[in-house]
Fold:
Amino acid sequence: MRTPVRPRSFGVLVNLTPLIDVVFNLVIFFLVASHFARSETVEEVDLPRATQSSEQEEPPRRLLITVKPDGTYHTGGRELSLQEVERALEEGVGDDPAGYAVQIRGDRHAAFGEVEKLMTLCPKYGVTEVGFKVLGEE
Amino acid sequence: MKVPRHHRSTDYGGMTAMIDIVFLLLVFFVIGAAGLPKEETISTVLPAQGSIATPAPQERPPQQIDVWLKLLVGPKGRTVVDMNGTSYDDLKFLKEQLKLLADFDPSNPVVLDVEADVPYGDVVDIYDTCIAAGFDNIEFATGEQSG
Structure:
């Protein structure tokens, strides 16, 4: 008996649905990851609350310093002494202090004296812009 | 007779579904781990280099007065604010007084003279109150000036 043979179709049939699924998932993942990578909130601190704060565009040239309750300084996930902070500020400022900003993420229980030391360093290198990181109104 | 069928397998062991789930889990944990409250910024402008000195007396309107706010830790361990010689341990009452002063003349310069052991959160609170009251000129006194 002769077996009936179906005519062979030309071309390869590719199911695009899973491919699109994976691509969309990748896009979402990288969008979310890049968004949170920019926030740099590495050190967990209890920030003070304020009513007059705003979500400002982060300056391109800045030094973000976290002040922990015990008065230690942290930058980029690393603990620094005041001398190291000063060196980082000096290197960051370079020859162009205009447009350079220092941002302080201080724990609300930290002594102001530790924050004041950072604020005193700024004019020494010509930095006039200082920002305090806070939590806005709920 | 059984006809042999050319069966082309399209089953890749459920890899696509697995990749989907893994990515969804990754996204979930990334968002979950970073589900922290949004941080905002409250700015101040410091004097430029070389200008940290006792300011020379300037001619100013007669009604203008310096509002000196001295923040210190009181005997009960709470922050006490001394405003031009009057002590306030009730920060709520102080805020009302600041608002009245700002309503009278917002160009009055405010100087925050803070002792080193005062909690940073209280300093930000008072600074925020001064901005909210409407003062135009708020400055921090340095250790040299306050001493």
